[in-house]
Amino acid sequence: MADSVAGDWGPEMGNPAESDRPLLEQPLESRVLYSGRIVHLREERVRLSDGSEALREVVRHPGAVVLIPWDSQRERLILVRQYRHPAGRIFLELPAGKLDPGETPANCAARELSEETGFTAGRLEHVRSVYTCVGFSNEVLHFFLAEDLVPGEPSPDEGEWLQVVDLSLAQARTLLREGRIQDAKTMVGLHWFLDRVDHGTAP
Would you please indicate which residues are annotated as catalytic (active-site) residues? Predict the structure, then answer.
């Protein structure tokens, strides 16, 4: 049954199956509308499978990492509180950050964990990668479970103000159930970790 579902819906991150080809779009040309420090906006003309053409506005992003830091000694998850200007409010989030040019996701994960929380991890495990908004962006989030944590002093980027907090598993469940965590990447990461706990495979 699993193979049938994968075949019906297509591969998530691999090469397209032959049956998927009517769904594909052929890039024809692309022009830059805006190039910023983090994102780049392009207008791209594509050819559809019926021969017609369409315009796509695409936000290009270098990708980012999300940490799920688990302090097994205290049985606490490590999160941060941060003001997010686009939304105009403070969010409770898993630590995260974008990849620098030429940086691997694993190296970025180790760097961001230290910068945002002060912790270093004896073990980092890549657990999944998720596209954030496939309708207009190519941004991919790489999730890492961080274990064997050693505390230290945070060193956030200039202009970045964070408050490090920790949650018990019960607190995390309550916040999710009550809808008080509204950051999408944090919901994905916490649900993944709690599912792992519930199935007896947590560290």
Answer: 158
- How many independent structural domains does the chain possess? 2
Same domain flag for 68 and 56: no
**What is the structure's pLDDT at 2?**
40
Split at pLDDT 50, 70, 90, the class of 190 is very high
Following DSSP, what letter does each residue of the chain receive, concatenated? -HHHHHHHH--SSSPPPGGGGGG--EEEEEEEEEE-SS-EEEEEEEE-TTS-EEEEEEEE---EEEEEEEETTTTEEEEEEEEETTTTEEEEE--EEEPPTT--HHHHHHHHHHHHHS-EEEEEEEEEEEES-TTTB--EEEEEEEEEEE-----PPTT--EEEEEE-HHHHHHHHHTT----HHHHHHHHHHHHHHHTT---
Judgement on whether residues 186 and 109 belong to the same structural domain of the protein: yes
> What pLDDT shows up at residue 200?
78
Q: pTM for the whole thing?
A: 0.88
